[in-house]
Design a protein that fits this description.
The chain is mostly helical. It has two domains: about 50 residues, no CATH class; about 70 residues, Orthogonal Bundle (Arc Repressor Mutant, subunit A), CATH 1.10.10. The protein is about 65% helix and about 5% strand. Strand 1 and strand 2 form a beta hairpin. Helix 6 crosses helix 7 and helix 6 crosses helix 8. The longest helix has 15 residues. The radius of gyration is 15 Å and the shape is elongated.
Length: about 130
């Protein structure tokens, strides 16, 4: 709420919850969305959320850069695909420690009790389509 107020926006709690759900509370992703809403007032939160993971969304360059990094290392791309498929099917995923560590350093996953899941819905949606 404080960050929303700093941007001079009037979002209701359910809007904020939807945005946080998409970006997993990631500070840069969240700030980028709020800045977009503030600076481009013809953009609605609903449009932003719907297009976020597409080539037309505000995160397109960021997502493409991550995809290019993953594709440089086929082992990592395969591991991330396994994480995405697991999250989509509600299956717990375990990876090799090196893969977990590398994906975590890239900000793509969270590790809970040796299980790996996408760090946010944005990444799950994007990589589900592109890996």
């Amino acid at each position: 709420m404080e960050l929303v107020e700093r941007h001079g926006l009037a979002l209701n709690p359910s809007d904020i919850k939807a945005l946080i759900s998409l970006v997993g509370g990631h500070p840069w992703l969240l700030t980028k969305a709020l800045s977009e809403l503030k600076n481009y007032q013809d953009t609605t939160l609903e449009e932003l959320l719907k297009q976020a993971h597409t080539p037309f969304g505000i995160y397109s360059n960021h997502l493409l850069n991550l995809l290019e990094k993953l594709k440089q290392y086929t082992e990592l791309a395969t591991a991330m695909k396994k994480v995405i498929n697991g999250a989509t099917n509600s299956v717990l995923v375990q990876l090799e420690p090196k893969q977990m560590s590398q994906l975590k350093r890239m900000g793509l996953v969270h590790i809970e009790d040796n299980n790996v899941k996408p760090s946010c819905e944005l990444y799950r949606l994007y990589f589900q389509e592109h890996l």
